[in-house]
Amino acid sequence: xxxxPSRLYALAVGTLVVMAAAPVSAExxxxxxxxxxxxxxxxxxxxxxxxxxxxxxxxxxxxxxxPHPSLVEHAVQWIALYADEVExxxxxxxxxxxxPIVTFTIALDDSTTLRALEQPNHAAAWEATKKITVVKEEKx
Length: 140
What we know:
0% helix, five-stranded antiparallel beta sheet, five-stranded mixed beta sheet, Immunoglobulin-like, 46% strand, mainly beta
């Protein structure tokens, strides 16, 4: 059983969105994913290894270690960021005029595993994960 963080925030372009925490079913977005490393498709998560509880921090998701194409016939449709199984944010991309690099600002209360999913227009989604340790201040 996955522990759902008690409070999640997702900030995008200066707008605060408070997310309702609900687990994803077994048939949800994690049931049919590509998890094998692929230089062009596996998301890369750039985020600190540890953060302070409740303090906003940046998470950048880049699709692939090598630049992924952004062509009408071969592009990334969307990038989503999850805390364990709770979706925090999703960005829809348009071929040709956007590139698959997205920065989210989030705050966590509990340690979690960030999961980045990217959906290309020609195959199943790809996933990457990164463990984030949340350091809580001691009460005085």
